[in-house]
Structures are given as C-alpha cells and as structure tokens.
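Before relying on records like the one below, remember that each one covers exactly one chain. Contacts with other chains, cofactors or solvent are not represented anywhere in the record.
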Amino acid sequence: MLAAERHRRIVAEIARIKFVTTDDLTTLLRVSHETIRRDLALLERQGELVRVHGGATAAQTPVGEEASFSERSDAFAAEKQTIGRAAAALIEPNQTIVIDVGTTALEVARALPTDHVGVIATPSLLVAAEVSTRPRAEVLVSGGRLRGGDLACSNAQAVEFFSNLRADAVFLGSGGLAPYGLTDYHLDEVATKRVMLANASHRYVLADSSKFGRTAAHRVCELSGFDTLITDQPCPAELRTALIQAGGSIIAG
C-alpha cells in the first residue's frame, strides 16, 4: 500500500471513531509499528490528527477565551462541589498538599474539615483565604504576578516556589481534557502547573464533565502526566480508553 493511501485510511479511521491505537493501525494496514509512528508524526505536522500515548486522536479546535470567574462559579456548581468533596476525602492529616487555582480547586479547599491539620500550598489567593480559616492548617502562598478574577499567582517566582516544595499530593485544575492531554487557558500558569506535577507524589486532575473533549490553547501535559482524574460522571469511551492506556485511574462521583 502506498503511503498516501495509508494516510488517507488513517485519517478516515480517526474521523470515524475519534481515537485509534498504534496496534489497531498496524493490524488494519498490515505494516510495522515504526511505519505507523512515522505516518502519525507526518499527519500530526500536517494538522490532520494529534498523537497521544498509544495512538492518535482527532485534531481538536482550541476553544476561545475562558469565561469569567463569576460565570464559571455559577456553572456546574453542584458537580464541582461533588468533585471537591471527593478530592478532600483523599487528603490525610499532616500531609503537604498543593491546591491549584480555579473554581473546582476552590471547592476542594471548602470541603476540608475545620479541624484539618497539615500544610496547604497554593498559587490561589482565594484558596489561601479559604484554608486560612482552618486554625490548625499551615498555609503557603507562592506569590508572583496576580491574575484578577481567580486571584491566581504565576511567573518565575511561582515556578521557583513550587520547584522547592515536595508535596504528598497536588490537585490541579483544568481548562480542558481530551485524548490530546490536559490543557489550560493561561500560558503563564502552565509552567507552574508542570512544576506542581513534577514535585508531587500523587497527581490528581479536577475536571467536571463539561471539560471532556475540550481543548484550551496551551497543553499542560499528556494524559500520562498525572495519576488520577476526579470528576462528576463517567468519561466518554474514547477519553476513558486513552486515560487507562496512559496508566491513569478515574474517580467519578
């Protein structure tokens, strides 16, 4: 089979089922894994697909700007509270925990018991203000440039702060979650999120079901870059398959 025909069939298969594995394509096209990897790399450069761990998925069109903090606070409020409670239940006393920025991350802070004991580090002034009402919690704030609405800190100062902090767990907010990976809207905050992930023993991503299949402008990491998704309902089949193949687990309320 000529390369052009292989490429046409790969694109058609992804258009049909949205996600294909490398193994599936080697069987379908009767070529080696190395040939498929070269084909996928070329098609990704051409914008026909996006490579992910174990295969490829349909190219995603990035969504526009993030909605305002007040709009996001009102949307999916019950679902975010469910995620927040599920996340807070995973936090043990005397741990060092990182809680990210965003409306769902704020629900994790709100769900912590009033007698919680431990260290809470955050780039969010809203999260910091919430957990500061727990008299036995030690609160660390990264500092850095402040973004209005979410009151989120970022820049080199925030990156350095989290580079020097080893956490038992991080609870990361999300702009979108697709087989392509975890994405976010704010470029300055991506570097902070990556350092948080790199320095935590357990890495959780918080995403309500409205984030499924959504791609924000900036990729934070591939699906293999975190351990567990905490969400409010079961994932679509293609995203669930991609998460499992990447070695991740899912907690759905």
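The longest strand covers residues 200-206.
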